[in-house]
Amino acid sequence: MGHVLIVDDEESICWGLKRLLSGEGHAVSVASTAEEALAMAERTKPDLVVMDVRLPGMDGLAAMKQMNERLGPVPVVVITAFGNLETAVQAVEQGAVDYLTKPFDLDEVAEVLRRALRSRTAAAAKASENAVAASVHGDLLGASAAMQQVFKRIAIVAATDMSVLITGESGTGKELVARAIHRHSLRAARPFVPVHLAALSPTLVESELFGHVRGAFTDAVENRGGLLELADGATAFFDEAGDIPLAVQAKLLRVLEQRELTPVGAAAAKPCDFRIIAATHRDLRRDVREGAFRQDLYFRLAAFEIHLPPLRERVEDIPILAEHFLRQSRVNGAGKAHLTDAAIKELCRRTWVGNARELRSAIDHGAVLARGGPIGPEHLPPAVSLSGESPATLEGALAAAARAWAAEELRRNETFDGTMHERMLRVVEPALFNVVLEHTGDNRVAAAEILGIHRATLRKKLK
């Protein structure tokens, strides 16, 4: 069993963590300020420190730095109510092995602390492997658990030189993630070179990537370096990597494996050194199975994966992003505008096919119509329909709608009568039954078979 030092100025947090850790057999000390924690740590040499970022006087991140200077690497789990990329990066920079965002679930806390205690010797390695810059890309925001995981993975992979594959729907911010990784990497002083593959002519992709020599083809009137040559010593960002032609995939694989590239028409290869970050909205695993993408290249690109969830799956981030986009809007009068509660509610209700990109456009649209006044639902553009989207997207939209309905019910009610599930079914089932009955020409026997319920049950529910 280990000795854990808890540092938080909220008594209830300290009490809960102490009870949890003591119950697992650990010795526990408690401090309410960073200064008190530093003195206590020097006396007791804890195996693990659990510390809030926001403390009276010296903050938790500054205390972590001093603790490492005085005691050597000490594993720290950071507690914060302000979970964002900056917090994650700074915490990892100072040697944190993990961090928790308030309010947190005790089961999650227990697992994080067990993991931290098991890896108590990893703090020094973490500090050196993840020394990162302090700048953060302003549009990469989110308080949801899903985005906290994204921030953690950025902080973990940034100072390595691994290839990274970023997946997610269009408009989720894949290039922002790529830029954040580059910004916090050892190559940050060198260029970030975007390669937008979908915008390149299919016949010229190879030339654009690898360059060409004079006479390699009809229009090659002079030697020209490719985009990958520009990225030498830097970071190349392959946007929509799923669009790389198969013939070019083989050549790119050789470049990644041999660290040299051969311009089109050249006899000799050139050494190259770049980090590749790729992004795609496609399911590359499926493309590999179908023969549309090389498996060996996929493994090279996806050495480390980061998935960006669609906006409809992190509804709690919508108000944060909306307010941020309004502050950033260049629309005349937007600086005086504000979003009404009704507008926020409407924004959270929508499915956002275009994700953050569509949300930003909606905010600009609202700011134009509101002309510096409050932005209400009437100022927002019509919602984009999900019709024509894939079944997985439609299922995600349905799940998002269910979450929004449940969250609104919980917000509006202080007492509950145990009928929430039943009321949800009363909302959803009639629509489901009507569509199936239309499909069967009102044949209830056939409808019951499609639904997988007894026809008597269907008859009862239709009454």
* Count of runs of 4 or more consecutive helical residues: 20
What is the alpha-carbon Rg in Å?
A: 27 Å
The name of the CATH topology of one domain is Rossmann fold
In whole angstroms, how far apart are the ends? 62 Å
CATH homologous superfamily annotation of one domain: P-loop containing nucleotide triphosphate hydrolases
What portion of residues is helical?
Answer: 40-55%
Number of strands: 14
CATH architecture of one domain: 3-Layer(aba) Sandwich
Query: What number is the mean pLDDT?
Result: 82
- Strands of the widest sheet, in order across it, are 2-1-3-4-5
**Beta-strand residue fraction:** 5-15%
Which term fits the overall shape? globular
Describe the 3D structure:
It is a single chain. The model is unreliable at 121-137 and 387-391 (pLDDT under 50). The strands form four sheets. Strands 2-1-3-4-5 form a five-stranded parallel sheet, sandwiched between helices. A five-stranded parallel sheet has the order 7-8-11-6-12. Among the domains are: 3-131, Response regulator (Rossmann fold, 3-Layer(aba) Sandwich), CATH 3.40.50.2300; 158-307, P-loop containing nucleotide triphosphate hydrolases (Rossmann fold, 3-Layer(aba) Sandwich). It has helices at 11-23, 34-44, 60-71, 85-93, 106-118, 123-129, 145-158, 174-183, 205-210, 227-230, 246-258, 284-289, 295-301, 318-328, 341-349, 355-370, 391-412, 420-439, 444-451, 455-462, and strands at 3-7, 27-31, 48-52, 76-80, 96-101, 164-167, 192-196, 235-239, 260-261, 270-271, 275-280, 304-307, 338-339, 374-375. It is of the alpha/beta class and 463 residues long. The protein is built from 20 helices and 14 strands.
